[in-house]
Write a structure and sequence with these properties.
The complex is a heterotrimer. Chain A is an alpha+beta fold. Chain A has helices at 44-52, 94-104, 109-122, 138-150, 168-185, 196-202, 220-225, 230-235, and strands at residues 4-15, 18-29, 33-37, 59-64, 67-68, 79-82, 156-160, 188-193, 205-210, 213-218, 240-249, 254-258, 261-265, 276-281, 287-290, 299-309, 314-320, 323-329, 340-344, 351-353. Chain A has a six-stranded mixed beta sheet, sandwiched between helices. By secondary structure, chain B is an all-alpha fold. Chain B has helices at residues 2-42, 59-66, 70-101, 107-119, 122-136, 142-166, 170-178, 183-212, 215-220, 228-238, 241-263, and strands at residues 43-44, 55-56. In chain B, helix 3 (70-101) packs parallel to helix 6, helix 3 crosses helix 8 and helix 6 packs across helix 8 (183-212). The radius of gyration of chain B is 24 Å and the shape is flat. Classes of the chains: A alpha+beta, B mainly alpha, C mainly alpha.
């Protein structure tokens, strides 16, 4: 039995001139919740539909639980799916909606009723059997959707932006419910969203996609702390990119020339002296102090261009020799526009990004 | 694995073949009657077991012109249609404007009421129309027949113009008043040109409706006002299929034009609205 | 005070503008209808007095019961067959195969051309020397002698369907295309085969559209005039029967015709109300 529950191997899908999925390879472990994260048009929904079978890839294969299902039609893949707009059958009651997959499988009536009741209990909707979808709130409808997806114990649960149609508060609540459910049932899940907060909160692993390519696959911490490409760094959280040149590559660190200053950063593979790279750091990792006296190691000089008060923090745009660096501080110290400052880029928070890397995971 | 794929693809193709066969048969089922009319109108000695007429001729059309007096029949049809279109459009512009732009209580009810003459079979009220026209000496007059046509032409014209007026952007009219135009001038210089496409479309459909109109004409016509549909009907009674076919071909022309216009639109299905059969 | 007049003025102008349309409605429909109703109560040939003899006669005679039965039969058969034709047709058209725009346009042909022309073409095509019989005899060789379709009841039903299926097809198609694809996707992922998706999800959800369209078809078929006039032969549904009272009898039996017309108009109103009800039903969206 392979480790992987779902595998998309080198899947390519084109729509006319647009390549929706460009040699996408994704491997999802049993029992894990993998999120496909990216802006609209990045190909995450296309990839999801390759798993369900709604899309047939032009190239590549799809495996579920070790079996090649590329040619297997959707209705035989034994998956469960939850939709953004719920897709509950409006002409059926809650009970009939959840019962539907069992009815299709010609299960006998008593057995069906039992499973439906269990499923509704799982999503805490007992008592709503006779209601019609239009009588339920958004959150309740989505839970019916979950019940319908899980009632026949599929191996895989797919969720296509299931919380986008709910309001913010409900979204947070449902997030916990979904994660809790997934963990309790131990079911493998693929979650599609463009909301990075959701992705970081829910996932065991995240696959960040852009323009049909998988940019990076990793745990939420890996994605946040060690983004592989500029896109990933930029998409998750706030980011600063400062053009730099590699001066020296040492065993324990790399020395960069950042706007004339020597900055030491953690070691990174595949760079050599003379290369043009980007120094990447999060705005709230940068430390500011007034430009007095000598510069300390890993500091660069700049001038405050804009400052914005945001209540719990300050947002500064600092001009460093023509490059705008964004800094967010919670400190008591306040800086004014035009003030000269030193920006401290802590060694352990710096990363090196190669701008040229566009579609690294193939 | 490969063969399964090929097999599935072949199966898909078989379904596709079936689909195309069905659609083709449907297409033929609808259109072959017209083809037969066309050939019948152009053929000579087409009896017995032949797919196509052995000889082709324009005689039947000539016959139509000389014996059935097509020029005069056409003249009648066009005059009547012209009058009907004129009256209907004059009715439809103010009524459509009111329904499209004014707040009117029970607008929906009024709209449904106005459409009633197209929902009730014309024969029902044509009886009344005939009797009224007898008393008013409108039988067998172009004006009379045209007025009868207005009964079914006006509703559709009103419908089209109401929706055209409704679609007028408020802000354009506002801009006109800001520029100094009063209501009347705005209407003639801004509103009317903007609704012209709607008016034109309504004119075309109204014309075709009157041109094709049979039932009401049948109840209000006379020897001086024989229209093309009526003449064609009489020709059927006379038994000369070839001449009738020739007449039908002439009868069909505006409808073909309308179909041509429809197919240039994106969604032909949306236009069904007022096309109730004769 | 001035605002009272202003409001009045607004309404007055609206009314003034509505007047032509209302005048046309009252003058060319309502009043003639009224004349017909009044005439239906007059004794034959007289201009005064009231009687129910025409209604009694009409509804009492076996022959007129036949006429009503015939009219209903034709309308119902036409409607059912239109549904049978429209559903697979629209399901196929939805797939947008090559040339689908041509087929969509074809749906509109029967209601764009005058009924007379359609009737003539159908008579020619289904006649004993028409292409259908040629196909059956010479092409497929399934029969020896020509099959009689013209002027038969079956033929009349086919002609009706040809003329009136469009209303059903169009509303079914538009309902079908308005259906959210997510429903079918959900059903398929849940394990339903394409046939099961059709049966359990698609058809129930487009039923309102099918119903609305078929009521229109039914109404058109019930009130059919020029088609049965030319192709009905010995079969005379209601509209034709009304006309015959004027045309065939001398002196023309206006009163009897009027009574029939009133009955017909009332029935159509009943169907129309039913249609409006169907439209108001909460449909799936």
């Amino acid at each position: 039995m392979s480790d992987w529950m779902i595998e998309l191997v080198d899947v390519t899908k084109r729509y006319g001139n647009i390549v929706a999925n460009d040699h996408v390879t994704l491997r999802i472990r049993r029992g894990e919740l993998m999120t496909l994260l990216g802006p609209s048009g990045c190909g995450k929904t296309t990839a999801l539909r390759c798993i369900t079978g709604q899309n047939i890839p032009d190239e590549g294969r799809v495996f579920i639980d070790g079996k090649d299902v590329t040619d297997v039609p959707t209705h035989r893949r034994e998956l469960g799916m939850v939709f953004q707009n719920f897709a509950l059958f409006p002409h059926m009651t809650v009970f009939e909606n959840v019962e539907f997959p069992l009815m299709i499988r010609r299960m006998d009536k008593a057995e069906r009723a039992g499973l439906v009741r269990d499923a509704l209990k799982l999503v805490r909707l007992e008592g709503y059997e006779k209601h019609y979808p239009r009588q339920l709130s958004g959150g309740q409808q989505q839970r019916v959707g979950l019940a319908r997806a899980l009632v026949y114990r599929p191996k895989v649960l797919l969720l296509d932006e299931p919380l986008s149609n709910l309001d913010a508060k409900l979204r947070e609540e449902m997030r916990f419910e979904i994660k809790d459910l997934q963990r309790r049932l131990g079911i493998t899940a693929v979650y599609v969203t463009h909301d990075q907060e959701e992705a970081l909160a829910l996932s065991d692993r995240v696959a960040v996609m852009n323009k049909g390519c998988v940019q990076q696959v990793g745990t939420p911490a890996e994605i946040y702390d060690h983004p592989a490409t500029k896109f990933v760094a930029d998409f998750i959280g706030l980011s600063d990119f400062i053009p730099a040149k590699v001066l020296a590559v040492e065993s324990e660190r790399v020395i960069l020339d950042v706007q004339g200053e020597r900055i030491a950063v953690p070691p990174v593979a595949s760079v050599h002296a003379g290369m043009d790279v980007l120094l990447f750091i999060r705005p709230n990792d940068v430390r500011l102090r007034a430009a007095e006296g000598q510069k300390l190691p890993n500091e660069i000089a700049g001038v405050i261009a804009k400052s914005t008060y945001l209540g719990d923090k300050f947002d500064y745009r600092v001009d460093v020799r023509g490059v705008e660096v964004r800094v967010q501080t919670h400190g008591a110290e306040r800086f004014d526009n035009g003030q000269a400052v030193y920006l401290h880029l802590p060694y352990e928070r710096c990363r090196v990004i190669l701008e040229s890397l566009v579609c690294p995971v193939r | 694995m490969k063969t399964l794929r090929q097999y599935l693809r072949a199966l898909l193709n078989a379904k596709r073949l079936l689909a195309y066969t069905f659609l083709l048969c449907f297409f033929l089922w609808v259109t072959t009657p017209f083809l037969m009319i066309l050939l019948k109108s152009l053929g000579r000695n087409w009896f017995g077991k032949l797919w196509l007429p052995p000889e082709f001729t324009l005689d039947w059309y000539k016959w139509a012109v000389t014996v059935t007096n097509i020029p005069e029949v056409l003249r009648n049809t066009l005059i009547i249609a012209g009058i009907a279109v004129g009256i209907s459009t004059l009715i439809a512009i103010p009524t459509g404007w009111a329904l499209g732009r004014r707040k009117i209580p029970g607008k929906e009810v009024i709209m449904s009421t106005i459409l009633l003459p197209r929902m009730i079979p014309p024969i029902a009220y044509a009886l009344g129309v005939a009797q009224i026209f007898y008393r008013l000496h409108l039988i067998d007059t172009h004006l009379g027949v045209a007025i009868a046509h207005v009964a079914i032409c006006a509703p559709y014209a009103i419908l089209v113009l109401a929706s055209t007026f409704e679609g007028l952007d408020e802000r354009v009219l506002e801009a006109a008043s800001v520029c100094g135009a009063n209501n009347l001038r705005t209407f003639f210089h801004v509103t009317l040109p903007l609704v012209m496409p709607g008016i034109l479309s309504s004119i075309i459909f109204t014309f075709t409706t009157s041109y094709n109109e049979f039932t009401l004409t049948l109840m209000t016509y006379g020897p001086k006002t024989i229209t093309l549909p009526v003449r064609t009907y009489l020709a059927v009674g006379e038994g000369y299929w070839e001449v009738t076919s020739a007449l039908s071909m002439i009868l069909i022309i505006p409808s073909l034009f309308v179909l041509f216009m429809i197919q240039r639109q994106v969604q032909p299905e949306k236009l069904v609205g007022g096309f109730k059969g004769v | 005070m001035t605002s009272f007049f202003k409001r009045r003025r607004y309404g007055l102008i609206s009314l003034l503008m509505l007047l032509p349309g209302l005048a046309s409605f009252f003058g060319l429909f309502f009043y003639p209808m009224l004349v017909t109703v009044v005439r239906s109560f007059r004794p034959e040939g007289l201009t005064e007095g009231w009687t129910l003899e025409h209604y009694a006669g009409f509804l009492g005679q076996a022959s007129t019961r036949q006429v009503i039965l015939l009219t209903f039969f034709l309308a119902i058969a036409c409607t059912l067959l239109s549904i049978v034709l429209s559903v697979p047709l629209t399901l196929l058209l939805r797939q947008k195969l090559a040339g689908h725009r041509l087929f969509r346009l074809t749906i509109l042909i029967p209601i764009t051309v005058p009924g007379l022309v359609g009737a003539l073409g159908l008579l020619l095509f289904y006649g004993s020397r028409g292409w259908l019989n040629l196909l059956l005899i010479q092409g497929l060789r399934v029969v020896q002698d020509p099959v009689k379709i013209n002027y038969t009841l079956t033929g009349l039903v086919i002609f009706y369907v040809w003329h009136y299926f469009s209303y059903t097809a169009v509303t079914t198609l538009s309902t079908l295309e308005g259906l959210d694809p997510a429903f079918e996707e959900a059903a398929r992922v849940a394990g339903a085969s394409p046939w099961q998706v059709l049966r359990h999800v698609v058809l129930p959800l487009i039923m309102p559209g099918i119903l609305a369209g078929s009521v229109l078809t039914f109404m058109a078929a019930f009130g059919a005039f020029s088609i049965p006039l030319i192709t009905g032969g010995s079969y005379r549904p209601l509209a034709v029967q009304i006309y015959k009272q004027i045309e065939v009898y001398t002196p023309a039996r206006w009163e009897a015709a009027s009574a029939m017309a009133v009955v017909m108009a009332l029935l159509q109103l009943v169907f129309l109300t039913f249609y409006m009800r169907v439209l108001r039903r909460p449909s799936a969206s």
